[in-house]
Amino acid sequence: MNTVLHIKELIEQNLGKSLYWDEANGRITLEVEDLVAVCDLLWRSPEAYFDSLSCLTAIDNGPEKGDLELIYTLYSIPNHLTFHLRVVVPRELPNGSLPEVPTVSHIWKTADWHEREAFDLVGVKFTGHPDLRRILLPEDWSGHPLRKDYEEPDTYHGIQVKY
């Protein structure tokens, strides 16, 4: 498989859903809802074989837009192909809990740390994750620093945070 169009067709044929296709800056991104099913297919399928999750980028679009984006950058070493998946979730849930996305750490081990970083800095909960806890900040840190409305505390345990 050598084109992104074939990957889109592979997903649509196997999962029976049409996908939103976004082409910008020479990069094609598919927006998906069934993240685990799509990732599992792209990992298991010999014609795609995306054997690496290179990056997971969590983006806060701000309170005005009201959503968060997760961009999964997949790479196929044997096919020398990069592919992007996008998942969009609401930024705030009515009950005040964090938005949830299922983990893909059982497909790619690298997702373990990528998901922990997105949880820590942006505040996305990855359901089914084997060890979802902060990775960069202390466990008792309040908030998620890469949220657009995050306000940095003046002190942390009596230590000045702001300079």
UniProtKB/TrEMBL annotation:
One matching Pfam family: Complex1_30kDa
GO cellular component: plasma membrane
The enzyme's E.C. designation: 7.1.1.-
Membrane topology classification: Peripheral membrane protein
Protein function: NDH-1 shuttles electrons from NADH, via FMN and iron-sulfur (Fe-S) centers, to quinones in the respiratory chain. The immediate electron acceptor for the enzyme in this species is believed to be a menaquinone. Couples the redox reaction to proton translocation (for every two electrons transferred, four hydrogen ions are translocated across the cytoplasmic membrane), and thus conserves the redox energy in a proton gradient.
Annotated family: Belongs to the complex I 30 kDa subunit family.
Quaternary assembly: NDH-1 is composed of 14 different subunits. Subunits NuoB, C, D, E, F, and G constitute the peripheral sector of the complex.
UniProt name for this protein: NADH-quinone oxidoreductase subunit C
Source organism of this protein record: Aquirufa nivalisilvae
Gene designation: nuoC
